[in-house]
Each structure stands twice: as C-alpha cells, then as structure tokens.
Specification:
The chain is an alpha/beta fold. It has a single domain, classed as Vaccinia Virus protein VP39 (Rossmann fold, 3-Layer(aba) Sandwich). 35% of the residues lie in helices and 20% in strands. A 7-stranded mixed sheet has the order 3-2-1-4-5-7-6, sandwiched between helices.
C-alpha cells in the first residue's frame, strides 16, 4: 500500500495504481532518474507500453540503467526529446495516463528546468490525445528558480479548460516546510 501522506509523488502513484491496468499505454513526460518510469512499467505489465521522455541524456541513461537492472526495458520506449514534441513520438496512440514531474533533474544542473510554455503545450497535446477516463498527474515544485512561475502559469491554463473535457484537482501540503511539492490532477471526462 502506498503511503499518500508521504508526498505528492506518492499521491500521484496512488491514483495511477487505481486506474492503470495491465496492457495500458502510458506516458512519462519527464522521466528524470527513472523511478516513475519504473513504477509505470510495473503497472502496465508485459503487454503494456510506457513512453518515457526527457530532454537530458543523463536522465535517459539513468532511466535505461534502472529499467535494464529490473528487466523491464521491453515495456518502455525511451525518447530523448523535449515533452513539447511528444506527439511526434506517440504516433496516434491514446495513452491511458500521463505523468509530468516538473522542475530539474535530481542531482543534475539546476539551470535546466521545465518551462511554462513547453509544459503547457505538452499538457495541451496530452489532454487532446489522452483516452477518455484517463488521468494526468503534474507534480510541481515551487522552491527552485522558475518553479513558482511555472506552477502559476500551468494552474491558470488548467483553470481555463472546460469541465465538459476535464476535471482538474489540486493536492498540496499546507503545514510542511521548505516548499513541499504539490500535485495537479487532471481526469479526462469527455472530448471537445
């Protein structure tokens, strides 16, 4: 059982654990060190597929190493690219879920961060092609340079989406110190 009181990443995993089934196709739009990709690969099973992308070679290499060690590379397609280009790689696939973990690569260059404009465009594309009933999680961090601005821009974008298309929720910790990560959840309920 996942401890959802631990942090926002745990809450996102809890939601995905409830809604992703064996054989599903899912997207990790910011694979980072690979922990979320590994989690998703376990959920989709041997007949599912995870598309995992990141703009940094170090992230792709880290994710590859983790998946190879666990024997799960056959479930994952690794893509070195910015998430704004995700449609070029999905080839008409409608993912059941997508995960965005914003900010910078843990242990990496803190100047290489996700940006509001590309994140919003990637979310727009993901919402369009996400299967109805699917989920998107966005873990955000406001404690680094550019983090609050990205959170605010993404929140404004999501608040403007029609409720006939998606339901948008926010999860955050109010009494934790040092800018704990928060979570935005999108549930696709219809088509435009």
């Amino acid at each position: 059982m996942l401890d959802i009181s631990k942090n926002s990443v745990s809450m996102a995993k809890h939601i995905f654990h409830q809604h992703i089934q064996s054989g599903d196709v899912v997207l990790d739009a910011t694979c980072g060190r690979g922990k979320d990709t590994l989690f998703l690969a376990g959920l989709v099973g041997k007949y599912g597929q995870v598309y995992a992308m990141d703009i940094q070679v170090a992230a792709i290499n880290s994710t590859y190493g983790l998946l190879k060690d666990k024997g799960l590379m056959d479930r994952v397609i690794l893509i070195k690219d910015n998430h704004v280009n995700l449609l070029e790689h999905l080839h008409g696939v409608s993912p059941r879920a997508a995960l965005f973990n914003l900010g910078y690569l843990p242990g990496g260059d803190k100047k290489i961060i996700t940006r509001p404009d590309t994140t919003i465009e990637a979310l727009n594309q993901t919402i369009t092609f996400l299967a109805v009933g699917g989920w998107i999680s966005i873990v955000f961090y406001t404690g680094h340079e550019g983090g609050r601005e990205e959170y605010e821009a993404v929140s404004r974008y999501l608040a403007g989406l029609p409720q006939s298309l998606v339901t948008v929720m926010e999860w955050k910790y109010l009494n934790q110190l040092n800018h704990p990560p928060g979570l935005l959840l999108i549930h696709k309920v219809g088509e435009l």
